[in-house]
């Protein structure tokens, strides 16, 4: 299989990374391969056997043209600044140009130690690798900007965490792996010249239309803020809790990156936390917009030396942009929620309707994903789904009445509105109990439940009778769901 690499970061950004090599696995075996994504990248897999794929995507045999490197970055982790983090268990093999001209990073994750490993083993266990593959594919199917998973390969080696697990390597595809933490590293250690160089590279790669603006670094800040507002609204709209919104996990491309302690809510609770180490709920579901705002303030701080070098007056403009993040997010959020509720035209009354909805969902412990599909069914004249997820049939009657009143101001047929809602409200998400069942089975050597779940979450909107069980939440009596970083 031929890779056509064009490694601009390696060639143009010397000093922003460390060369690295993958550890050689003892017995690589292909667990999963993303054929549609391979086609998107222009990779011809016709006639390529699984053994060759396992060799290529485990680090056993690097493809021709690869320039493996580990990226340098810093980051605020749970609010505390770590001046040097970097790719401690990942290798950027290189960049590919897809048939449509888009550029993508190809990265091995869990491929062994690098210069940034900080005494870690640089490996990954099978559970976190398969979780990231599964959840990132679900996010892509729902239209949420995300990194993607091309391959998962078991290594034949054991990885020691709380106990020994089968090792694995994930091949991650991203528009780039440039993070807010990348800018923080070079702002902290080298200053304005390096920040400006990184900013210029980022603009050239991702936002070339910004190159000729009055202050391109200020324009970059504005662009990234807009993308992060969109991303946080996407997450909230599908009930997703990222779990590790540290600045080293904020991609300037606006893609979701790092699927460690993440999960989707079943029954709604604004304080939902899934990370085992988030004891204070810093990254709870409802705090994600606030943390996104905080992260954008840190991005602005890192960019300030470059912004100031072009025009000192623009420092105040950067501060104003950061101050305006909440207003920008709210505008994006209300647009997304209107679509979920079947509303087309903005109206002042929508704000109260949307804000009050979440208090109702929490009060009655309503399954978040099912609720919006149930509303669409109600428009079709069928209230059974809504009744099934509420503690009493009339539990949300006042709110439902307000929603109906808002719908009536628009001359849209109920069936047309219901179909539009079903196109933006998923029926199937990676339900936590189903994810755990699939991962446990995979670790025991049976991949079939994982493959079945992957097929379901890749088709989140279309009802299939045989998939009814995948749309159900876990038991209300189950212990709080907890996820772990996997490092």
Structure annotation, total helices: 17
Note the run of SSEs as H and E: HEEHHEEEEEEHEEHHHEEHHHHHHHHHH
Structure summary, number of beta strands: 12
Shape: globular
Which regions are unreliable across 5 or more consecutive residues at pLDDT < 50?
Answer: none
Give a description of the structure.
- The protein is an alpha+beta fold.
- Among the domains are: 8-174, no CATH class; 180-333, no CATH class.
- Helices cover 43% and strands 13% of the residues.
- It contains 17 helices and twelve strands.
- Strands 2, 6, 7, 8, 9 and 10 form a six-stranded antiparallel beta sheet that branches. It has a two-stranded antiparallel ribbon with strand order 1-3. A two-stranded antiparallel sheet has the order 4-5.
- α16 (432-443) runs antiparallel to α17.
- The mean pLDDT is 95.
Walk me through the topology.
Layout: H1 8-12, E1 17-19, E2 29-33, H2 35-41, H3 50-56, E3 69-71, E4 75-77, E5 80-82, E6 90-97, E7 103-109, E8 124-125, H4 126-141, E9 148-160, E10 164-174, H5 180-189, H6 192-206, H7 216-237, E11 240-241, E12 263-264, H8 288-310, H9 314-323, H10 325-340, H11 348-363, H12 368-379, H13 384-389, H14 397-407, H15 414-424, H16 432-443, H17 448-457
Antiparallel strand pairs: 1-3, 2-9, 4-5, 6-7, 7-10, 8-10, 9-10, 11-12
Helix pairs in contact: 4-16, 4-17, 5-8, 6-8, 7-8, 7-9, 7-10, 8-9, 11-14, 12-15, 16-17
